[in-house]
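Render this sequence as a predicted structure.
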Amino acid sequence: MRAYDLIMKKRNGNPLTTAEIQFLISEYTKGNIADYQMAAFCMAVYFQGMDYRETADFTMAMANSGRWYDLSKIKGKIIDKHSTGGVGDTTTLIVTPLVASCGVPVAKMSGRGLGHTGGTIDKLESIPGFNTEVSPEDFIDQVNQINICIMSQSDFTAPADKKLYSLRDVTATVDSIPLIASSIMSKKLAAGAHGFVLDVKTGNGAFMRQLDEAVELAKTMTAIGKQVGKPTTALITNMDQPLGFMIGNSLEVKEAIKTLAGSGPQDLTELCLLLGAEMLVLADYTANVNEAYKLLKKKLKSKEGLVKLAEFVAYQGGNPKVIDEPSLLPQAEFKTVVKSQKSGYVSSIDTLKIGNIAMSLGAGRQTKTDIIDVSVGIELKRKVGDYTAFEQPLAVIHSNKPIKLEGNALLECYKINPSPPLKQKLIYKKITTLDV
């Protein structure tokens, strides 16, 4: 086999065999295929695509390029939850302790944030003392003891994906559905879960801005799960405005605590219940989503998820007192109130711009080497559909440097009209293996 022949085969729109895909990924990982050849292959995929079987083979080849986690010693069926990323997306910190409080194991590897989307590991590390560097042995032991552990992704997990993503990033081939899907799912598969619940965001704050693109990505990832024998369900969810009210690492931890205490934002609470319900169904814990949803609502009301969060934090070296005293979390020095300059209803929010403003404050990374400030961020006071009078607060900027209000970019993120907008959907579509 030669890389040249495989590039030409894909360039001409023909599917590659399983063996050809394995050869391509294996030899590229070893350094025997040059970056310029792999870049040409990625561009061929960008224009010609890959079918579901090819994409599953490509995913498995990348997953097999590194170490798989053997979670066979964990009791129960492990269902991983993954989000494609958004603004204010705090769901993991809420869903996982809720599901774990039912006795269902949650063994999860998560990543750090890059760009305008936040990372679960960064949020957890805003809790004083919290340790995300957990050995595989301790990872398994902790899940067996308290049903939950979240650790940072290992460099040994799908190294082919890490190498390939860096190449795609500089060759304008990031936004290829088969390459996105295989990148996500290769890491998920190598992490050892038995099945997956995917939260695929769409809207102006999401990577997939158009609904049809999000549906295609969800179907592709669900098809990968089906091809490799891992039950997979995807929810297409709204990211045309931030989820919840808090954007920023320690701020989002505070909101997660509030939500598990039963007084969180309606949209964030509802999405967490729906994602958690899908996890319980795939774990064979409940017969259907309605039964699972009702069970999780009871857990929320009894605050069992909050108790589990405190236990989880303590087990990984964090200060569990933050659950009862969120003021112990890192706090920014300055709070600057941004007030509305007109009266009316919030008709839309530029979510991407708000995410980028939070990143510029230090809440996110522009490059992987940037150091983030876990205390800064943005607290929304009005969301789409809310009425605001002139000079009423729209948002509060939490920063460690003074903020000028004149011409503040946050004001430009809000569109305010005399009439209320149509109510937005939270969930656009559900996709299961029956749909692919």
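Summary. The mean pLDDT is 94. The chain has three domains: 3-63, 79-325+427-435, 331-417.
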